[in-house]
Amino acid sequence: MSINQLIYISQAVRKMSLEDLNTIQKQSKSNNQPIEVTGSLFYNGGWFLQVLEGPEVILNNLYNKIEKDPRHKDSRILYNEPAKFRTFPRWSMNMVNLDDRQSDKYVELVEVIEAAKTDRKIGSVSPAATLLKIFKS
């Protein structure tokens, strides 16, 4: 089965609590597992950055559903490309809350989100490609 990786950024309509983020993760896991979608959601300073991995048609349908979620606005796809392998194969949905500053990749991930918010590159590389590189290494 061929897979795609879809990465989008969006802005939360309000500050998300730990409970809010746990609810999102739990819902995502139960929704994604049966449709063979994996990925990770990153939250920082009121912004979401999410990587979704799975069959292209399923990802497009899922993104259309996500786009309508009232917990965020101004959703924008940064990357939607075929992939040779999954970067997050173990997680039907991982969650990284960068607001708690506990991530071992904190500085790199915050830079990716900041670059994605303003549509700028990191060096000569897109934020999406940088994000995938962080987790492939």
The total count of strands amounts to 5
* CATH class categorisation: Alpha Beta
Q: Sum up the overall morphology in one term.
A: globular
How far is the N terminus from the C terminus? 24 Å
- Rg measurement, Å: 14 Å
CATH topology: Alpha-Beta Plaits
List the strand order in the largest sheet: 4-1-3-2-5
Task: State the share of residues found in helices, binned by percent.
Answer: 25-40%
Structural class: alpha+beta
State the domain count: 1
InterPro entries: Acylphosphatase-like_dom_sf, BLUF_domain
Organism: Herbaspirillum rhizosphaerae
Protein name: BLUF domain-containing protein
Pfam families: BLUF
What do these coordinates show?
- The protein is α+β, with helices and mostly antiparallel strands.
- The protein has a single domain, classed as Alpha-Beta Plaits.
- The protein is built from four helices and five strands, in the order E-H-E-E-H-E-E-H-H.
- It has helices spanning 18-32, 56-67, 106-117, 127-136; strands at residues 3-12, 38-44, 47-54, 72-83, 94-97.
- It has a five-stranded mixed sheet with strand order 4-1-3-2-5, sandwiched between helices.
- Strand 2 (38-44) and strand 3 form a beta hairpin.
